[in-house]
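User: Please write out a complete single-protein record containing the residue sequence and its fold in token form, without commentary.

AI:
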Amino acid sequence: MNKSIKYFRYFRKSTEDDNRQVQSIPDQMRDIEALCATKGIPENQILDTYSESRSAKAPGRVEFNKMLDRIERGEANGIICYQADRLSRNPVDSGRLQWLLVQGKIQHILTIGREYRPEDNQIVFSVDSAQSSEFIKDLRTKVKRGIETKLNKGQAPIMAPVGYLNTKFQERGINYIIPDPERFDLMRKGWDLLLSGKHTVADILNIMNNEWGFTTRQLRTRGGKPISRSALYRIFSDPFYCGMFMYRGKIQNGVHTPMVTVDEFDKAQILLGKSGKPRPKVHSFSFSGCITCDECGSAVVAIEKQKLIKSTGELKKYILYRCSHRKGSDNGKDNGCSQKKYVNVDILEKQITDEIQKYTIHTDFCEWALDILRSDHKSESRQNQAINESLSRSLVQAQKELDNLTGMRIRDLIDDDKFVTEKERISESIAKLKTQLSQTELRSSNTNKYAENVFDFAQNAYKKFTAGSQDDKKTILLNFGGNWRMRDEKLLCDKHIYLEPLQKYSYTLDQLKNRLEPEFSLTNKSFRDNLEIYPVVRSERDLNPRPSA
């Protein structure tokens, strides 16, 4: 072994899988000591030792970077580690190591079963590094695929809660959750005590721990103790116990054995003091939270109904909207509102699309109008720039006046009253100039942006609503108007003021489009001078309305 090489030893394990580490750091150290003895590397050739518990799938390991920094400075030129994948599992760190080998700053990398030197074929180290990196990538893909498969089967990819067990089989990916034979029935008795309405959570906790001797399942690092108050509250609020489970913010229907029914779970949440239906939301509806009843002001809510079509045997789903009758009611009872009918979502969407069509403008006109706005914007930008420069000069001059005034007061050339009076005047002038300057800059940066958004809505809203997702439909609904209300199966709303000119001229534009000669087409810029509807393009009052004083 080359006596001129100075080594660093490096040991690493991943914190992500502590429970399944094949080789812990102490084990690695023991094997490396044996390796050094076999290779004849004395202790005086090993300058330092680095170890850390962190994954190598991404760059950023502190101890690893410290070691390579010292190698780049020439303090050492060799590395001893258990395997190459302990050094890196990502292409960034692998590339840095390989470059140090190419430069000769690393003369030797010694591992169990393989050695790397600068004179060796670089493909060998590249392949080994790539394999380590690909292992992490493949593992991540397999884990995600396994989780998706379990979710599709209704199997919860989570740690089993109290009263249940995760099965353990040799073949990975087929584990699922089963009732814990020692705790399932006791936990169910705890639910019964809560559902009886005669016991508080504190009472149930005392009974379970002190009378039944209930203890949690013993795990490797925790468990085997009486259940805590906070854990019992979490149990009574967890939808897993009624056959569902929450994963990544979404509620899923599970195939595990439920401990309580859905109705019992709902009752438990009410007993715990939670308002409304405590069960997590399963359905998502386009217009939920957007519409109120025009008669009583209650929220209009959506429900999903199913009906079996006898002639075809098809189970058809319907989404219906109705007044919730909750506003002003007594203890959740009907408030007396006369709006009792259910309205099919198809009817509501037809009303919305019919209304949106009134404000839809032809694509040719939108392109023509925006062309004009962009052309005019260049001239306005030059004007705004001149105004900005003038205001900036005035602001600098006012600031100088304030500085001079302060200097005069310091030299006792003016008294306090004169100083205060003049300072207030100049400060007020500075404040006004700063406000004007900021407004000019804002106007310059936002010129035509608002108008472009209006024309985009007029051109694309109908298509987005009819072919878009639930979120698209809700966005179009809110951009179209505010204060949406429903009365007698009809939708009402306060439409945004910028839509007024679009409705006024949309029909006229369609007629003009159909009858204009080619030389007077909407794309002809000279046509704007003779078109009476040109104000809809440039009208600041319509496209950027401001509240009246």
